[in-house]
Structure formats: C-alpha cells, structure tokens
Amino acid sequence: MSQIALPLAHKKAADPDRIVVGNANIAAIESLRDPSKWPFGTAILSGERRSGKSLLGKWFAGKGMGTVIDGANAIDETDLFHRWNKAQETGQPLLLISDAEKWDIKLPDLRSRLGAALHLEITTPDDDMVSDLIESLAAQHGLALGEGALTYLVPRAERSFSELERLVKTIDRLSLERKAPATQGIWRDALEALQGPEQARLI
Fold first, then answer.
1. What is the DSSP string of 155-182?
2. What's residue 199's pLDDT?
C-alpha cells in the first residue's frame, strides 16, 4: 500500500497523518510537488469531505513549499484577494483548499485571478484505492479484519472517502459490541446498517 506521510514517506502504518496514495489523488500530489509550474503560483485543491485535502495542505506547508489557506471558500473574498496579491508580491506559491462542491466567487477581481489558477481535484477512489483505504482505516482503529474481508467489502462499499470511514467505524463498533471478531456476519451487518439490505440494493 502506498501512502504519503508528513513528512513524505511510503510505508503502511496505523497513522492518521498518513494519506493513502491512489488513483484519486496521485495527480494532485504530483502537482503539489512542483509549485513552480502553477500559473501565477496559485493552485486550488478540492475534493469530497474526508478525502485528505487538509493533510495534503499540511504536508505542502510543512515542506516549506508555499502558503496554504484551508477552507478558502469560507474566507471573506476581499481578504482573500489581498492575500492572493501578497503572495504575488512575495513570489510565494499559494495553495487554496476549497470545501465547496462548487465555489461561486462573487468578487470579479478574485474570480478572474482564481479562474487562471491550477485546479486540482481529489476524485473517486477505484477498487485498488478502496482496498488500501479500508486497510489503512482498519489499522488506525486497531481493527483486525478477518480473512477475505477486502474481497467481500471492496465490491460492495461506496466509492466515497467519508462512507468508507463510516463503514470501518461501524465494523469496529459492531465487533466491540458483540465481543466478536470482525468476520463476514459483521461486515454484512455493517454494510446493511449503512446502505440497507443487499437484496434491496441489487434491485
């Protein structure tokens, strides 16, 4: 399993400050490695909740590669425009992290500036990344998934970072409540608790 850590590393570990690298985020990570290629030294990183945007921002800032504004879409637009201008004056790369599905910028000057920025997105994880995410999340919880867990869970799990987190938390909770190992009965019940009965999902 490939992971990016703070600082950058590629090791499997039960560490919430490690980000699993896969199809959904590899393009964004590669772009973050070289901000010299960003137009006007500015990039905007977006993606679904719990997809690791803030951790990537912390890694970027920790490497001293530039300034990060997390939750940039919620900041006063005039203030954000001034901060963009300051970054231009100092030549410091600026990474803006947006939590909005669609960032509707009202201030024309800011809208035109950010329209020219590099837009990076964390997309939907594929099967390989879903498998790695489940393993990583289980390790963070100290949860031992039984044999065949990934074969069973990966094709049935939602392709969503936040939903995968909920799934692993639910498996962990059911295992603790029942004082039983996390085997197929618990995997199935966790999926049904979050998504409904499997037969209904297949109709």
1. TTS-S-HHHHHHHHHHHHHHHHHHT--B
2. 45
